[in-house]
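thought: fold this chain, then report.
action: predict
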Amino acid sequence: MMFINAFAAAITLISPAVFAAPQIPQDLLKIKLCQDPDLGGLCLEPVARVATCENIDPTYDDKVTSFDTRGRICTFYLEADCYAATEYSYDGTMNDLLKSERPGFNDAISSYNCL
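observation:
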């Protein structure tokens, strides 16, 4: 009986480790980019390096309408490679770029950089 109790205790201790979601290292971040308003339609959740320019996947380039920065301050660019002719910084969930203070970014984002 004591063996069974010890075995049950061991399983209880290891279970959370076995089923826990993998953690993203602190120098990496994950945001959500969607093609429709309210984080709808096709969405992409790229993993990126903190404070590093990232070009948006070609299938989503110039197609993002909503996004969630997941608590990060992200700067979005109309051009690839974070070319800064025009930029838009945001922290949080943007439900519809077309209805935002920067509607020109709707279906126009090509790169981003998040802190």
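thought: worth noting. Helices lie at 2-19.
final: tokens above.
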